[in-house]
TrEMBL record:
Residues 110-340 form the Aminoacyl-transfer RNA synthetases class-II family profile domain. Its cofactor is Mg(2+). GO terms for biological process: phenylalanyl-tRNA aminoacylation. This is Phenylalanine--tRNA ligase alpha subunit. It comes from Hymenobacter telluris. Keywords: Aminoacyl-tRNA synthetase, ATP-binding, Cytoplasm, Ligase, Magnesium, Metal-binding, Nucleotide-binding, Protein biosynthesis. Gene3D superfamilies: Bira Bifunctional Protein, Domain 2. PROSITE patterns: AA_TRNA_LIGASE_II. It catalyses: tRNA(Phe) + L-phenylalanine + ATP = L-phenylalanyl-tRNA(Phe) + AMP + diphosphate + H(+). It holds the Pfam family tRNA-synt_2d. Belongs to the class-II aminoacyl-tRNA synthetase family. Phe-tRNA synthetase alpha subunit type 1 subfamily. Transmembrane segments: none annotated. GO terms for cellular component: cytoplasm. It is found in: Cytoplasm.
Length: 345
């Protein structure tokens, strides 16, 4: 044992510690849990009892010596690294590498603004699946069996086999209204933002995937006047108090009566331009009183309750708000386009 201790002391004193790599090798070989010192401590139980105390003290001294040499050299190397002269081959006058942060997508910015505006008057957010069954997407919303929307030229059908349930990519967020009415009791005040899909050719004014947001209010004695005042409030909060609103009679299978919502053109301020086709008005969405048949299909008594629904395309609202002329820009991931909205965060 004494010979091993003497040999190990000589090795520790003579070990080359000139580099961090050699220092780490020294730690592993001598002071680590599986190093040579640990092995000698394990062999201490084989030393005769009368010599064990003296040998143990000598081993502890050797361990402290090895640790002291390791820590001293470690501090020297760290100090040398901190005080090392600047690299003469590196140009410290070069500008720093820019750390550019990402920006919010304009559609997300507008969607969140819409949610904030309507949440202030009591609307909560409801969501539903993007792959829907025919009943929620069409039948429950009063679409007749021969309606053009049920044709594959207008709708992306995922599964369409005679005699089996039909599944499709939802064509509007109105199915979420049905699901909300099925699971909640009036009063209901919800908005439904989300992606929708229609089988359309992609152009500057149309896309096969876009975003909608719809609002639903069901309670006793809800009237068209309630609907109009909500729309007036929403438009003025989103676009400004000087923007005018008008309602034009229209038709939707799930509302009766129904209307289109127009606002004064934000480009020409109502004077007439090519964007508004020189009418001074642009359409932003549709609205109406929920058809009693839709209420009944969803499990709500139409004799006691009434409601209104209205909705719009988020892309159209965003294009009007930021005067964007090509719908395709929203999905092309062009950084030159997206970085224009950094100041809008």
């Amino acid at each position: 044992m004494q010979e091993n201790i003497s040999r190990l002391r000589a090795e520790i004193e003579a070990y080359d510690l000139s580099t961090p790599e050699l220092l780490d090798q020294f730690r592993i070989a001598y002071t680590g849990r599986k190093g040579q010192l640990a092995d000698l401590f394990d062999q201490l139980k084989t030393v005769p009892q009368e010599q064990r105390r003296a040998v143990g003290q000598e081993l502890n001294q050797l361990k402290q010596q090895a640790l002291a040499r390791f820590e001293e050299r470690q501090q020297e190397l760290e100090s040398a690294t901190r005080n090392a002269p600047a690299d003469p081959t590196f140009d410290y006058t070069l500008p720093a590498v820019p750390n550019q942060l990402g920006t919010r997508h304009p559609l997300n910015l507008v969607r969140e603004e819409i949610v904030r505006i309507l949440s202030r008057i009591g609307f909560n957010v409801a969501e539903g699946p993007e792959i829907e069954d025919d009943w929620h997407n069409f039948t429950a919303l009063n679409f007749p069996e021969n309606h053009p929307a049920r044709d594959m030229q207008d709708t992306f059908f995922v599964h369409r086999t005679p005699g089996e349930p039909e599944w499709l990519l939802r064509t509007h967020t109105s199915p979420v209204q049905v699901r909300v009415m099925q699971t909640q009791k009036p009063p209901i005040r919800s908005i439904m933002p989300g992606r929708v899909y229609r089988n359309e050719a992609i152009s500057a004014r149309a896309h096969m995937m876009f975003h909608q947001v719809e609002a639903l209010f069901v309670d006793e004695n809800v009237s068209f006047a309630d609907l109009k005042q909500t729309v007036y409030y929403f438009v003025q909060e989103l676009f400004g108090s000087d923007v005018q609103v008008r309602f034009r009679p229209s038709f939707f299978p799930f509302t009766e009566p129904s209307a289109e919502i127009d606002i004064t053109c934000l480009i020409c301020k109502g004077k007439g331009c090519n964007i508004c086709k020189y009418t001074g008005w642009v359409e932003i969405g549709g609205c109406g009183m929920v058809d009693p048949a839709v209420l009944e299909q969803s499990g709500i008594d139409p004799e006691r309750y009434s409601g209104y629904a209205w909705g719009m395309g988020i892309e159209r609202i965003t294009m009007l708000k930021y005067q964007i002329k090509d719908l395709r820009l929203f999905t092309e991931n062009d950084l030159r386009f997206l970085r224009q909205f950094e100041a809008v965060q």
